[in-house]
Amino acid sequence: GLGRLGGVLVVLAVVAGAGCGSDEGAGEALGGALVGDRQAYVDAIVAASEGDGELDAGQVTCLARGYVDGVGTGVLREAGITPESIRDDPDANPTDAGLALTTAQAEAIYDEVSGCLDVQALMVYSLTTASAMPEAAKACVAESLSEDLAEDMFVAIYTSGAEAFERPGTPLYDQYEREVGPCLEVAGG
């Protein structure tokens, strides 16, 4: 959900920089009203993520800003997602509110987040902490997961969910299997 940025692949599933959001320029033109709205969303996501313990405060803030800037506050409002609703139900999923992100929006989130966070390392962390994976397998994933695949997975998770790289026969699945599959064999999975 929007508030659970730190869970395994949620980074990937949320939700949840300066300046690439669709409302940023309009907010500045209106004397900062929408910029303040942006900060309210960021603050709500950060507050809803407190206690997850998987990411530090800086990482959560980076993800929250990337999400809000990549999607835009207007799009969130139109979907009925408010800072209050995020605080009230931190486990809510944006897709439940009818918010379906486009590839361009997910790429914008990635661009924002990759400016303040090592997305590849975060993906490795997410993939290797979900289970009791042996150290050799964790090291294999860290060596094998390319930056390109990390970006493609990140974008796919925001547009299609984690299933996007778990569906046999898709290009992303094939790339995931080539890069990470041998590591899973090391892990016994």
Q: Could you say which overall geometry the principal axes of the C-alpha atoms support? A: globular
Query: Runs with pLDDT <50, length 5+?
Result: 1-33
Percentage of β-strand residues: under 5%
Supply the helix-strand structural class: mainly alpha
Query: How can the largest sheet be summarized?
Result: none
Q: Quick one: how many beta strands?
A: 0
Calculate Rg over CA atoms: 17 Å
What is the residue-mean pLDDT, rounded to a whole number? 76
Order of helices and strands: HHHHHHHHHH
**Secondary structure: helix percent:** 55-70%
Distance between the termini: 27 Å
Counting H and I runs of at least 4 residues, what is the number of helices?
10
Question: How do the helices and strands line up, and which of them pair or pack?
Answer:
Blueprint: H1 24-29, H2 33-49, H3 57-71, H4 73-78, H5 83-88, H6 103-114, H7 119-129, H8 135-144, H9 147-160, H10 171-187
